[in-house]
Structures are given as C-alpha cells and as structure tokens.
Amino acid sequence: TNVSVTSIWLSGNSIGDEGLKALAEALKTNASVTSIDLHFNSIGDEGVKALAEALMTNTSVTSIPLWNNSIDDEGVKAFCVPGIQVAAHGASAYS
Fold first, then answer.
1. Which of 40, 49, 56, 65 is a plausible cystine mate for 78, CB 3.0–4.6 Å?
2. Transmembrane residues, as ranges (predicted)?
3. pLDDT value of position 57
4. Where do the DSSP E strands lie in the chain?
5. Bridge partners of 88?
6. How far apart are the C-alpha atoms of 80 and 36, rounded to whole Å?
C-alpha cells in the first residue's frame, strides 16, 4: 500500500531559516502534508518568506504552529497575501 505522510512534527529541532528553506522546496511538490509543527525552531523572516512562497502553490498545508521563533512583521506579512490558505499559529497570520 501507499501511505502518505500528512503531519510533520519538527518542534524544538532548531532547523533555522536554512532548514525551513529546504522544507519549503519539498513542499512545492507535495500534496499530502496538511500540518507542520515548527515551534521552537530558531526560524526568522527569511525562512518564513520561503515557506510562504511554497504555500502559494501548495494548498494542502492548512496548519503551521510557529510559536517561539524569531518572526517579525516582515515574516508575518509574507503570509498575508491572497492565495495562502493557512492558519499560521503564533504569527497571527491568515489570508
């Protein structure tokens, strides 16, 4: 049987911006993941912008907890564009 991963739990792994950029690249071609837990990961605006770009084409991800990262206004703004349908918990961003 073919089993698809639907949730990714990366909390507390300190993946940082570079790790999130790599994950964002993979998400551009993934349609099964719906939730990615990214809290406590030393993520900043640069990583979140890459994630937001990936979510412009990936509509399966609907929940991303982002608590306790280093995301400022610029990172939150990256999620606040038409086309992104995700609840970015901890960044208070919905579109």
1. 49
2. none
3. 92
4. 7-9, 35-37
5. 93
6. 18
